[in-house]
Amino acid sequence: MSPAYVHQALTLPGPLPLDNGQALEDVQIAYETYGNLAADKGNAILICHALTGDQYVASTHPVTAKPGWWERMVGPGKPIDTDRYHVICANVIGSCIGSTGPSSNHADGTPYGMRFPVITIRDMVRAQVALLDAMGIARLHSVVGGSMGGMQALSLAANFPDRVERVLAIATTSRHSAQNIAFHELGRQAIMADPHWRGGDYYGEQNAPDSGLAVARMAAHITYLSEEGLTEKFGRRLQDRPDGQVGERAFGFDAEFQVESYLRYQGSGFTRRFDANSYLYITRAMDYFDLAEEHGGMLADAFAGHARGKGARFCLVSFDTDWLYPTADSRHVVHALNAVGAPVSFVELSAPYGHDSFLLDVPALDRVVKGFLDG
Amino acid sequence: MADLRPDLRPDLLAILDRIEPGTRALDVGCGDGVLMAALRDAKQVDARGIEIDGACVERCVAQGLSVVQGDADHDLTFYPDGAFDYAILSQTLQTAARPDHMLAELLRVGRRAFVSFPNFAYWRMRWALASRGRMPVTRHLPVTWFETQNIHHVTVKDFEELAGSLGITIENRWFFTREREIAGGGANWRAEYALFEVSGTTG
User: Fold this and answer.
1) Is the ipTM of this complex over 0.95?
2) Alpha helix (H) ranges present in B1-134?
3) Which CATH architecture has domain B5-120+152-200?
4) Which of A147, B8, B27, B162 has its CA 20 to 30 A from that of A136?
5) Which residues of A are catalytic?
């Protein structure tokens, strides 16, 4: 984390009501925009990021200096064409890349820590809509998101049906399964078991719960890949040993297999840009996500605002190797949309990379995204 | 409008001609969406599709069409009663697990249905089977018996009989041979494939 960097942000004019009954005051939303907003403000596309993503969808990340997380998808002439569309991407509330979250200061001048209210996906979406209000954008051309971003896209469609014309939800679900919750709990427990976590009150201390956060990231990262992808990339290959011996077993617990050092690298890199408490809050928000439950138990009722084609057009995309949010999850949403007569497309794309396929080089996804947005 | 037409198979052209502008249609087994695109562009039809082949679905979505990847044998049940003015099943009936159930489903979700299928009583088929004693491979049924997706070979007479037994009204029928429409006389042996427009008993 680099709290020193100043992200472009907007402070919401009023309190943000939350699902838990409280309201959050002085909410700051950090965001990036790309392309020009048309005079009629009709070309705005909101991109919602995934769990550990951020607003730097198509520009260099100020902390890591890495390219934007969807740079291959968003830009001039790209599937989400910033020559045509005004792309907005905001950091979700609860996160740590400039939007209000547990590392932000409470009214008393010290960080919230675990005093930050437990939030939901719908709370994140309320904040996004408040940002759009502040920008004077009444109706989005599209909302686009993968994974947790897809949950927000569906939640926005369900709760603010008049605010969007097209909804593109990729590799996502309408509710978290027991298995999804179980993996998240593993990550949270790893963080809370780290002695440096200190009940969430570690800001300003010398050490943050980086070990716990790294373990959480490692566990989650496995769920983002596929067995096929991992086997292809690493197999059972061993690391070269420090003494230069190639592929020899050292009979110890250092990262011996290449897949181990890959995960360790992913884990440690993550702690430099992410806050452990934010990880707790955002995974919790995802676990609570159940769009049907929010609407009386019937998923179709969640999309009542789009009945008989009077609302938005939808497109859902799944990947055949994604076992975190498998194709059946997307089909479930598609059937609910069919039941209310909403125009919906659905395609299961073939890609070897598991859940992370939506971020990687899958040319078929580019064609679907472009076709759906421009069509 | 005219430039859309040369690409269309004659049965699809007949469907395009019959469908009223501004209506809602579901194309079951829509392939790469050629009929849906024509319906949308020529008649402002709100066209939706179901297609099992992911590559075809991808091409549909890339044209801005609303197509769901799925298996018509199972997925029609997720559409509400009377959701469409028309349900279309072109050259797919013979691949359905239960063509009778499929017909009933088509007329549940659609007020009317268009169904086209290769006629297995076509004389060339009969001739091939009678003279060579082998399952025919023709221009219209180009795949050998063990590879074919066609699991319920049907004839014009069979279809008319099934419609009768299901209480389905045949509103119109078209017959085609060598990509041209032919008159209805002796269709059961003269037609290479057939198109029926049907409606349910309850309208």
Assistant:
1) no
2) 10-18, 34-43, 54-62, 72-75, 99-109, 123-132
3) 3-Layer(aba) Sandwich (3.40)
4) A147
5) 147, 322, 355
